[in-house]
Write a structure and sequence with these properties.
single chain, Aminopeptidase, Alpha-Beta Plaits, 2 domains, five-stranded antiparallel sheet, 41% helix, elongated
């Protein structure tokens, strides 16, 4: 009888464990080691963000719902691509990178959160450009980041496509971070923005980058460098992550795209041309590209190249199409055989 109850207890325990698989969060302290980040009055960004990240992780680890993975827990240099690799290998549910901001204006202050996307203005571009400059400290950066020119906004168009399917979740997480920071730290809320951060591009999950405040502002620099300030920021971000987790759980009905992806009904094609001419969908009409799909839209025709469920492979095909002369080509999502965007 005792053995019987032991097995019942064991099965129950395993069932509970299976139902409560932890929500994996990768916490990324920006910069580190030979990369100090922003430096003002001998105060280093890399040191402040590491302290915030460790406090944030400690706060989240109090709750068994969360499993925390760190990209770094001490002062050492870690390459941007490696940060993404850590998150991807862990199959994380959320990637959070923490940084400090800087500005030529000493009056600039407040926090802002970024998700991956196109720079809608020069200010966003400059913020991303400054964070992306770390690639020049990496070995073999020319080969690893061959497709990116950090001085060119156009270089990051492909980056936004890679994270497109996670954009809504990333924005929801970022909005909650901004609200929580404003409410709990009484700092200025500079909003949620989009820009081409390479570190966000490397991940295949919802991801955001938080600029916690300006080291160039004396009052904010002192706050960021204080134990009380770091603790407030960490607790505020932890509250936001928990809020995001519960939002995600309560909205667990997958989006149309995510549901299709789970069923294997979502795939990508490259639109290479639109024309009034009814051309045969054969390689000879499209500079040797194959396979070609023709779609009639009113009195016109759309022509697509390739078909893949892997967005990374689609990016490679897009480069092939552009090299063939289809410079305006772009990736299109299909769900259950119908164009989605």
């Amino acid at each position: 009888m005792k053995k019987y109850f032991f097995y019942i207890f064991l099965l129950f325990s395993l069932s509970i464990e299976a139902q409560t698989e932890p929500f994996k969060i990768v916490l990324d302290a920006g910069h580190g080691g030979k990369d100090p980040g922003k430096v003002h009055k001998k105060i280093y960004e890399k040191d402040i963000v590491l302290k915030i990240i460790l406090l944030l992780g400690k706060e989240l680890e109090k709750d068994p719902l969360f499993k925390v993975i760190y990209t770094r827990r001490d002062d050492h240099f870690i390459e941007l691509y490696e940060r993404g690799t850590i998150a991807n290998k862990a199959k994380a549910d959320l990637f959070v990178s923490v940084h400090c901001n800087s500005s030529p204006s000493k009056d600039a202050h407040g926090s802002e959160s970024y998700v991956l996307g196109l720079h809608v203005n020069d200010i966003n571009f400059e913020v991303a450009k400054e964070e992306n400059q770390v690639i020049f400290l990496e070995k073999d950066y020319k080969e690893r980041y061959a497709g990116y020119d950090i001085n060119s906004p156009e270089s990051f168009i492909g980056l936004s496509i890679m994270q497109e399917e996670y954009l809504e979740q990333s924005i929801q997480a970022a909005k909650r971070v901004q609200s929580s920071l404003a409410e709990n730290t009484q700092r200025r809320d500079r909003g949620v923005k989009q820009a081409g951060f390479i570190v966000l591009h490397q991940t295949y999950m919802p991801a955001l980058l938080i600029e916690t405040g300006f080291l160039s502002n004396q009052e904010e620099r002192e706050y960021l460098n204080s134990i009380a300030g770091q603790q407030q920021i960490a607790i505020s971000i932890a509250k936001a992550i928990k809020n995001y987790y519960h939002w995600l759980k309560n909205n667990s009905q997958l989006s149309k795209e995510a549901a299709a992806a789970a069923r294997g009904d979502m795939y990508y094609r490259i639109q290479i041309a639109t024309s009034n001419k009814d051309l045969a969908a054969v390689p000879s009409n499209f500079k040797g590209l194959s396979p070609i799909l023709k779609e009639k839209i009113g009195n016109a025709f759309r022509y697509y190249y390739g078909k893949e469920t892997d967005l990374k492979k689609m990016e490679n095909l897009l480069q092939i199409a552009k090299k063939k002369g289809f410079t305006d080509a772009f990736i299109v999502t299909f769900i259950s055989g119908r164009r989605a965007n």
